[in-house]
User: Fold this.
Amino acid sequence: MQTTDGYETIYKEFIRETNLCADLDTLEALRLKYFGKKGVFNDLAEELKNAEPENKRDIGQKINTLKAQITSLFASKQTEISENVYKTRIDNCPVFDEELLINKNPLGSYHPITLVQRTCEEIFRGMGFTIEDYSEITDDFNCFEALNIPPFHPARDMQDTYYLSNGQVLKTHTSAAQNTIMKKYGAPLRAVFPGRCFRNEAIDACHENTFFQMEGIMIDKDISVSNLIYFMKTMLSEVFGHEVKVRLRPGFFPFVEPGFELDINCQICGGKGCPSCKNSGWLELCPCGMIHPKVLEYGGIDIEEYSGFAFGLGLTRLAMMKYGVKDIRTFNGGNIKALSQFTNK
Ligand code: DAH
Assistant:
């Protein structure tokens, strides 16, 4: 049986041995020496078992005190060693190597459609337009009826979309936000609203089921087609970085009257004629028109006082033209190599 001094000796020995431990492995070996199956505390437990009954209480208490002392010292030594290991690791770290970091974590880049969208937003902001956000899920009223496309109207055929089980739809065009924005702001009003649109399309190099548009509306007193032409020409010249020619052809859209297809002179051949513009010298870019009075009325606008124009700029198409992307599927393809090569210049 241990004397009181005996327990103290054990503790002192443990302190001595702990001081010799410089890493976690040696400390673990020490732990096993004391707490392992054949360790010191096992021997002490044996002693306790064999002790006279009247001594058991006293011995048990002494063993417990010793155990508490050793456990606590062990824990603080463990923390001390772990912190030292960490500190040594930091001290030995190579000097910050910027190049290594850049190669390992390449910086991200904006998606080409984001770049085009931001350019357009900036340009329109400079012309007094606000930039509006609108949901991708909408309803039949906003997507069609408020735009003068009643149920069974043939114009719906071109915009077959995805219907949710609750009757809502994925918006087929950014025009779907017109009604909400008119009601929100009333007249006069200048706003553009970019957004992702969805259609049930057979996908090929020119068609996607998911694409981006930017809608714009301007409502004020005495707005005419000349205002429309002015804004479109200014915007497109800024996007392309040089003056572009535009022309209007008649086009039918139920929510505008008159409606137009706006073409720009081919940016590849400069208007002389090439395969990209099918030798016409013109590229179709942006349907537009004077907002139909019914649509204004749906939006709560007084048609005696106000008129306006609207346009639906194909952002995806614009990005294809600006960056010379031949296949629309590139944009949703997720090939980082293909998508990270564009800048806003
Ligand atoms: N929303 C039409 C579409 O996606 C495009 C459009 C045409 C928008 C004429 C307009 C407009 O604002 O005036 O097919």
